[in-house]
Amino acid sequence: MKLHGAEIEDTFAEAFPMWGARVLITAATPAWALEAARSMTGFATSVIGCKCEAGIERELAPDETPDGRPGVSALLFAMDKEGVGKRLVERVGQCVLTSPTAACFNGIEAEDTVDVGGQLRFFGDGYQASKVLDGQRYWRVPVMEGEFLVQERFGIVEGVAGGNIIMLGRDTETALRAAEAAAGAMRSVDGAITPFPGGIARSGSKVGSRYGALPASTNDALCPTLRGQVEHTDVPPDVEAVFEIVIDGLALEPVAEAMRVGLLAAAEAGASHVTAGNYGGNLGPHHIHLRELMP
User: Fold this and answer.
1) How far apart are the first and last CA of the chain?
2) 282 has pLDDT over 80
3) CA atoms within 13 A on the CB side of 23
């Protein structure tokens, strides 16, 4: 299949279930809200090594936030409900409670919830106070600057992780330009994030390794420098660089939409080939076929 001169492989991305939450962070200024969100979503590129995957969904205007201040929406995903709860307590406690003027609210109304503010209140050492508004409990935790306001419980939903597109280019500059265009387009999709740095991973992985302690290792079939050393390569002779974008979402639809806009943007920006990663259908139940995303 061809799109704007790019060869689109007739394959699919294989995605799998993961539990997710939306965190609304507000602050006195947009800059401080963004600072807190960046800190909270740091070191969260992959559950393989980070225990969760997280990223900034979008910035919020004051009329979109619970307290009428500038804000940022962030998404966090883990493999199970307990994992989401633990990671939220850790990251909100270490990165949002500590950030100047920040407050933190739940961003999803869901049947399943985890206790966040109810755990973080203990930092107040007995001086914390709570209030119930519209059936929701909020905690005011005293800090040196004033008070940290945090909602007690956060909704969680069963989302989708592992959506992806892989872009190949005839040189690094072209491949990176295509990946940057794809990542930029994906940021317009609500309900989805791209957790790697700038949304882009240069180190796609395969399951397993010749070293038994490692659960994953470099995807040698897509490493241009190994083209002549491996039994099988997926890198054409005229390709010098490959980048991958991984997408997590609160549902299948935003993941597929992010892949769609990213595919189009990468092709328009000069990718020579676009493909996707899967494990023959054995990893996850969600198969997002590139041909179904074509305009």
Assistant:
1) 11
2) no
3) 37
